[in-house]
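Question: what's this shape?

___
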Amino acid sequence: MDGKTILFVEDEAKQLKYMQRLLEAEGYRVLGAKDGHEAVALHRRHGNEIDLVVLDLRLPRLNGWDAFQEMKREDPQLKALVASAYVTPEVKAAIKSGELLGLFVKPYSVDRFLATISDVVRKSG
């Protein structure tokens, strides 16, 4: 997936580093953020380059749902997946409506995760 950029948001440093390496090995460019504020700032700087946002919900400083909402306000075409052990009714409704593209409940299968990422990015052109 050369040329495709993913903003991956995860507050656990080891998990963030692991996922960055994994996605980069698949040919993606990965921007990593450790909290919601950092994710929004990266999205503001690189929004036109980002093909997909993958974010945890429980993040420090600004939670994942609020970060998603802020990025979505700035970019109504934002494509995003949630990867979290914690699922709110808002997330379920956003998935049902198509506002969010999907959910990975932690711990999730890496193979399924990579297949879904590939599918979403391929469909987004």
